[in-house]
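2024-03-11 09:14:02 DEBUG pipeline.ingest accepted 1 chain
2024-03-11 09:14:02 DEBUG pipeline.ingest length=418
2024-03-11 09:14:03 DEBUG pipeline.predict start
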Amino acid sequence: MSDWNFMSVIILVGLFLLWKLEFAATLLNLKAFPASVPKGFEDVMDCEKLRKAHAYLRAHAQFGIVQSTVSLAVMLIFWSLGGFGWLDGLARSLGFSEVITGLVFLTALLASQSLIGLPFSYYDTFVIEEKFGFNRATLATFITDRVKGILLGAVIGMPLAAAVLWIFGNIQNAWLWAWAVVTAFQMILTYLAPSLIMPLFNRFTPMPEGALKNAIEALGVKCGFPLSGVFVMDGSKRSTKANAFFTGLGKQKKIALFDTLVDKSTQPELLGVLAHEIGHFRCGHIKQRLAVGLVQMAVIFFLLGLATDPEGKFARLLFDAFGVRKISPHAGLVFFSILLEPVSKLLTVAANTWSRKHEFEADAYAAQVTGDGAALGEALKKLSADHLSHPSPAALRVWLDYSHPPLLQRLEALRKWE
């Protein structure tokens, strides 16, 4: 059994309050669902589709409550039974170096977490998404995706984890060096992902020559957007849901449209969606988010240094809270992430508030550059109705989780622009 101390109580209360807050937001969100089709949605949603959206929300709400409760319960049971100390001792008994021992410890925890989450992922895909007509993934695709994810984690994640563990165990001002290494790694991965990683999971086909491609390229030129390619992604391989995004850095930016989006949208609607995505680039949102992300990561690594300092009182309190005697980078990384979870939620709330402001700005840019805010509004309504999204989510749910403003607010802003 773990010996509880003051730090244990702080962590436990923080995790419980976070769970309670999510539970309350879920219930309020269900209560906020409209009884009738919202004004302006009559062309994309009828009463039957509204009832279906409500059922979809309720199914996901029940699923989310069960999943979060099980995850929290398993972690608390493992913690209270001294599981972290036992696993650390087991990893050390193998006689490997500190770095390899750390990788064994982290891999065991991540593998256990993945196994616990696997039934939930299966249920979400093949029961909920299947029931409401979204799922198109086969069992073979589901298994293949996870095998690829594991292999990528081993090839990419383990060397990076080993580097971070070695730095914290051997170098002065380790937090600064670890931050620099992880930042460089992320930048390289962002550059290489569109050509090396994403094609492992989806097929990207160059958009055929024609009016739509010409219009997209003309939009890129008009917006001063360095576009190196326009692709259609086989999103229908897994789901009927639609989306669009751009990837890459510098002059290697590529636009990818889900095939489901191309099939369901008119040309003006597609141009509105793409102009919105370009708006993030032209309004400087990408650079702003990157800069804030780098600063935030630096702060986290600095605090992680305190949590893994063998001579520090904070580290000693933290390790005692989890029943582990020997202070180490690998265990400190796990314990600090658990301690940081409630704080991370607050940071996410702040980031989402900022992101919602950016979404309004990108909408305004798209309306201005295309001269047709109504087309973007129609595209957003179609996406919302097709995804069975909540038409008017509760304020607490928006505050906690929404990186995009509720649709009704976005449509109102577009109407004001018009």
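2024-03-11 09:14:41 DEBUG pipeline.report The chain has 15 helices and four strands.
2024-03-11 09:14:41 DEBUG pipeline.predict end
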